[in-house]
Amino acid sequence: MAKSTAENTFLRLKTVLDVLTEGVWSGDALNAGEVLAEATARVPFNEHEGELLSGGIPRGHKTLTSATAKLVKAGWLVKGRSGWTITEDGMRATVAYPDPVSFATALDAGTPVPADTPVPTAPAGFVRRTSAVPLAAVPAAGPAKTETKKAAAKKTPGKKAAAAVGKAAKVIEDAVEPVVKAVRGKAPAKTPEAETAAEPVEDADVETHPQPEAVAVAGDFNTILGAPENWAPQYDEAQMEFDFLDQLWKKSAELPAGHYTFKIALNRSWDENYGAFGTFDGPNHELHHDGGTVTIRYNHSTRDITIN
Question: So what's the pLDDT on residue 140?
């Protein structure tokens, strides 16, 4: 019997920890895209999960990306600007909860990993295996051999989705690396030649960074937008819209002239919020507005806010 989306998602969450643990053993630095691609390759999408949403992202990939917040909340995974890092508790959880049922139960209940659980070590002769579809496996544009066309025609929805995720892994790596360099102050200045050579990324509307389920502009002007109260990220009126093309969350509104303050709150709660300078639970953003239409943009990969 085919597993449900919920069962598959828990299987993939455990696989995320397994893949990151293997990365620690092998010394490989794995970015989020590679981890998610490997998890979905080892636990393939069913037909429903393989359906592509707007932007070319498989439904199951979107579900998994959102569900990884459970791993962060449990203290098993740390998401940083430079990538994902598994904690010792995360590695120990793969030992303490080896089967999907115990893993799902512990994760949902917030059960701590037993203190006497050892940190797993690499078995003798360990070599990290990779099941994800590599970028080279995605057919390129242009004429193709008959055999390639036939093989492509036989792909199941799950395999097509896995190929999309595999391709996205490379896009994610290329998109995130410049951000990391810029944050560290090491990004080289662009030359005119580099500017000319920079072409739009193929399939630019593919999600290139794991995104939250919802992003709200929660501040002292929410009632002006029609919300029942201010500083309440749960209301629809406070929600931003995600633009797949430029990977930004946006909110446009008509506001009277005045001085306003707000924060960016994720997933309709204050559990994860960002203030000035992208600081977690930081000071309020300030908006000195002359009146009229204002557009607020939030970049989840850098936590940057722009207003105009």
Answer: 40
Coil, strand or helix at 233? coil
Q: Which of the two residues, 160 and 22, has the higher pLDDT score?
A: 22
Structure tokens, 236: 């629809």
Cβ pair 282, 274 in contact under 8 A:
yes
Residue 308 pLDDT grade (very low, low, confident, very high; cuts 50, 70, 90): confident
- b/e for 160-198, b at 16 or more Cβ within 10 A? bbbbbbbbbbbbbbebbeebbeeeeeeeeeeeeeeeeee
Number of H helices, E strands in the chain: 8, 10
- Chain centroid to CA 261: 27
Structural contact between residues 60 and 10, judged by C-beta atoms closer than 8 angstroms: no
Which among 158, 153, 171, 160 is positioned nearest to 137, based on CA atoms?
Answer: 160
- The tokens describing 205, both together, are 């509307």
Mean pLDDT of the region 14-22: 96
Residue 81: its pLDDT value, please? 63
Q: Which two tokens stand for residue 201?
A: 């990324």
